[in-house]
Amino acid sequence: VTLSLQISDVNDNAPVFDKSSYEASVQENNTPGLSIFTVRARDADFNQNARVSYILEDSSVNGVPVSSLVSVSADSGVIHAVRSFDYEQIKDFHFRIKAQDGGSPPLSSNVSVKITIQDQNDNAPQVLYPVQSGASVVAEIVPRLADVGYLVTKVVAVDVDSGQNAWLSYKLQKVTDRALFEVGLQNGEIRTVRQVTDKDAVKQRLTVVVVDNGQPSRSATVNVNVAVADSFPEVLSEFTDFTHDKSYNDNLTFYLVLALAVVSFLFIVSIIAILGCFTNLEQIFQLFRIIRLFTQTTCTIMRKSDLKYGRPCSESIISLDTSGTQTLTHTQRRKL
Known about the structure:
CATH superfamily of the largest domain: Cadherins
Keywords: Calcium, Cell adhesion, Cell membrane, Glycoprotein, Membrane, Repeat, Signal, Transmembrane, Transmembrane helix
Mean pLDDT: 82
Subcellular location: Cell membrane
InterPro entries: Cadherin-like_dom, Cadherin-like_sf, Cadherin_CS, Protocadherin/Cadherin-CA
Number of helices: 3
CATH topology of the largest domain: Immunoglobulin-like
Largest sheet: 6 strands, mixed
Structural class: alpha+beta
Order of helices and strands: EEEEEEEEEEEEEEEEEEEEHHHEE
Distance between the termini: 109 Å
Strand content: 25-35%
Number of domains: 3
Membrane topology: Single-pass type I membrane protein
Pfam families: Cadherin
Helix content: 10-25%
Number of strands: 22
CATH architecture of the largest domain: Sandwich
């Protein structure tokens, strides 16, 4: 007699991942929908009890639902990028995936996953100093007696990328006199190569290029204006249209005087009209005292107008406004 026994499977085994945790990396600026990697779990049960499906557990990354960053295929366990990643915003993030079988009741297990975003050289260097403005020209003043190695200025730049992509180097691209200036390869310091002489031109212009170490590299350029001079008026004659500035000031003074004359005329007419109404001598004297005070105030305003356009003469860093108003900012700089 042959006796056959058929044993029915009971869902008594939970799915088991082939790793205790997963780590993967992806380049930033990836294409949405990119397949990152695959998680895999196995179930020792049979048929429906061994059928495994994968579920992304709810969590957040920097306040953003993880489901807006990645997704997982329920059948295959393939993890996809939902959107393009930006290393400067998210450098890495963690989440958990649950593997659940098809038994009744279902059994499950979960695993931790870490995604690391790899930086790409997608940002060019940014020059912080000297500030480039279309409305003004910033000039560094170098005395004619400056020795070799005199620190003219320093180009300051940053790169928001990381690692080698953020390593910066500085080079002179264009310069009025290449034998007079050099720039530090690593620090961006502009110094004199030789002794400054009287034969050197007052107006010097340098173009510095800042290059990062990425592949391919990115760069930024900055223009540096240098004035080789011992006095402030000498710089003005090179960097500004002085006759235009003087004409502007003369016009402003003319309109100021004209306005004061009109106000004075109207004031005197008003006084004459008021005198016709006064019969008391003391009231008339008091009115003349008011006129005298008004005259003194007018003279004070005129003196302040004359002082407003005084020209200081000293060694400095200057900022010359070229927008038409010819505003000049004069900042003292200590010699280094």
